Structure formats: C-alpha cells, structure tokens
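From the methods appendix. Each design record in this collection lists the tokenized structure first, followed by the designed amino acid sequence. Records were kept in a plain field format so they could be parsed without special tools. The example shown here is representative of the layout used throughout.

RECORD:
FOLD TOKENS (153 positions):
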C-alpha cells in the first residue's frame, strides 16, 4: 500500500519547490526595489520643489548700516546701498530686475526683506556673515533673521 499525503504539494519535487520559492523572493525583492526607487524619486521632486519655492525673510542689518542709534561711520552704508550690493554680488540672475523670481527690499535703516528660495537665502546669509566678519575682524555670530509666514499659520 502506497502512502498518500493529505497535502497535495508533497507531489512536487524539491527542485520545483525551490524554483517557486526563488521566483516569489525575486518578485518581492523587485517590488521593494521599484517601490523604493519610486518613493526616492518623489521625495527628490518634493525637495527640489521646496528649494525653488520663494518665501520672504527679514534680515537685521543694523550693525552693517550704522542704524538709527549709531552715528554714520566711514564704512557704514545705507540699507538701500547694502541691498544693491547684495543684488550685485549674490545670484545676479535670480533677482527680479534680471527676470528672476527673487526680490530684495530695504527697510531703512535697520533691515532688508529678501523674498527668495532657500538657496538664495543661504547665499545672502553667507554674504552678510562675510560682511560682518570683515567689518569687525572677528568671526560672525550669525545674522538676525526672521521668517515671515504668508499663510497665517
């Protein structure tokens, strides 16, 4: 009398079962790889979109312009002159006057408002830190910076 198993899968040979296991594992790995590539691409697209989004930031530049409380000294300039200097030195093609999306406005005597993308804000911060460093001769502590929310949240 032949022994018959209650399970039908025992009729397949070991090679067939190994092949089916390999196929299942390969499709799961392929799905995971494709899924991760798709998610990575979406994340990269969102990051790129955020880096291109223009938002306003107010920078305090009293220490560079002399401010209202301090008398004007020889190396101090007005906020308008500083704004013009920033436009000439930082990302010239990105400013509105040259067809770009970024704007810069001086609020005399103590601050400037820059509406730009993250990359241009980083360049403006680096430029202002460099100006502070050359003016004082010491390392800059960083700019006073206030982000403005347009959504009201």
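DESIGN:
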């Amino acid at each position: 009398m032949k022994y018959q198993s209650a399970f039908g899968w025992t009729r397949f040979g070991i090679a067939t079962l190994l092949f089916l296991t390999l196929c299942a594992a390969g499709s799961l790995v392929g799905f995971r790889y494709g899924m991760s590539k798709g998610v990575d691409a979406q994340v990269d697209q969102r990051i790129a979109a955020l880096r291109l989004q223009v938002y306003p930031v107010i920078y305090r530049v009293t220490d560079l312009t002399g401010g209202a409380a301090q008398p004007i000294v020889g190396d101090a300039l007005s906020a308008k002159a500083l704004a013009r200097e920033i436009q000439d030195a930082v990302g010239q093609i990105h400013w509105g006057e040259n067809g770009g999306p970024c704007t810069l406005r001086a609020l005399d005597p103590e601050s400037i408002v820059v509406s730009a993308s993250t990359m241009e804000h980083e360049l403006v911060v680096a430029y202002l830190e460099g100006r502070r460093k050359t003016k004082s001769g010491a390392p800059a502590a960083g700019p006073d910076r206030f982000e403005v929310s347009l959504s009201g949240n």
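APPENDIX NOTE: The chain is about 50% helix and 15% strand.
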